[in-house]
Amino acid sequence: MAFLTLSALIMSALGLGDRTYLLDQDNYVQYFRDTNIYWFTNLWDGSLTGTIFVIRMVTEELGWRAWVLALNTLGCSPEGGVRITVLALNALMIYALSKTRWPLISLVLWAVIPDALATVGLFQIRQGFAFAIAMYFAFARKQPVRGAALASLVHTTFAYPAIFLIIARLCVKRSQLLNLLSVSAAATTMAVLSSLLFNIFGGRRLVEYDQQENYTLNYLIALVIFTLIPYLIVRTRDERTEDPVSASVTRQISTMYAGILVFLIVSFFVYPFGMARIGYYSTLMIPFLLPSIRVKNKLVLWLITGIVLVIGYDVFKKYSSGLYSYFL
Q1: Other beta carbons within 10 Å of 83
Q2: What residues form the membrane-spanning segments (predicted)?
């Protein structure tokens, strides 16, 4: 009952609240105004080969444009299309959260974590829509790789998590430790290679994304602390009582999360632009994974408490800056 009540309150606020003053609202309204069938024909005409077209499906975010065109075809106004998108992504998210081990705790975390409901669930809706699709397929349909692939068509930043997830899937029959090491090695390699490529082609933009501007040592410490989450999930699993399919999904998602964290930690030193692109995944995954940890002893409880305190500090800081004003 509490889960349904909180879900209803969230959806009501999203459906009835004033969006005119929100960041990116005008940009998304313009997306709906500008997207038409000619955008798709231009995408095809501008691709010299089928391979280039497939690549551009991701880089040009074909899935997002298809969603926008579908709503436009149904006669939605640009403003109405934006609100429907917000409601749809949060409905998918709530349904996915209902499939976690502790749905109410997961939903509360989604509601309070700054990068979650108050950001990607409210005004950065392309990122939110992609993430919602990925989590819906992972936790509701038990098809994490398919969800990641579809999410990459909605927002390109999910291509990184998708790669980590594919590696986790390929290594699913190996030991969890080897799985984590494989994904961590891939994440480190991707961060270093991305840094080299960005140094070559990014030019002056690399200076603009100096990690000292947006990411501090406190953020780096938080990332390191969050690496406890996939580790604790592995250490506290009880294979005798777990559903094999659900356990496999949780294992793959937690391994993907480990890859994201390693990528961000390495990027802090070598590739700050990478942090700017996918940094929000460091906290978005927490509502799905933190409740999966089983409290088997006092040490685990203390470690979970430390993670919650880090989240609480971020919540307090963002509350003081007015991030949650839409809901209050």
Answers
A1: 18
A2: 104-125, 145-168, 180-203, 215-234, 255-279, 299-316
Cβ 248 vs Cβ 168: under 8 Å: no
Query: Measured between alpha carbons, how far apart are the two ends of the chain, in Å?
Result: 22
Q: How many domains is the chain built from?
A: 1
DSSP-based three-state secondary structure for 39? helix
Q: Which helix (DSSP H) or strand (DSSP E) does residue 93 occupy?
A: helix 78-97
- pLDDT tens-place values along the chain, 328 residues long: 899 999 999 999 999 999 988 888 999 999 899 888 887 777 766 666 667 776 777 777 889 989 999 999 999 999 999 999 999 999 999 999 999 999 999 999 999 999 999 999 999 999 999 999 999 999 999 999 999 999 999 998 898 899 999 988 887 667 777 888 889 999 999 888 877 766 655 444 445 444 444 568 889 999 999 999 999 998 887 766 778 888 889 889 999 999 999 999 998 888 777 787 788 999 999 999 999 999 989 999 999 999 999 999 999 999 999 999 998 7
Contact (Cβ atoms closer than 8 angstroms) between residue 136 and residue 101: no
In sequence order, the 6+-apart residues with CB closer than 8 A to the CB of 86 are 14, 19, 121, 122, 125, 128
* Whether 139 contacts 99, CB under 8 Å: yes
69 domain-assigned:
yes
With left for phi above 0 and alpha for psi between -120 and 50, is residue 323 left, alpha or beta? alpha
Cβ atoms 35, 64 nearer than 8 A:
no
Sequence-distant (6+) residues with CB within 8 A of 136 are: 92, 93, 95, 96, 147
The residue assigned the tokens 């009835």 is 16
**What CA–CA distances, in Å, run from 212 to 59, 207, 266?**
28, 11, 14
In 3-state terms the chain splits into helix, strand, coil percentages (rounded to 5) of 80, 0, 20
Give me the domain span that covers residue 41. Answer: 15-327
Is the distance from CB of 28 to CB of 67 less than 8 angstroms? no
- Residue 4 lies inside a defined structural domain of this protein: no
Residue 102 lies in a domain: yes
Given a contact cutoff of 8 angstroms between Cβ atoms, the answer to whether 168 and 175 are in contact is no
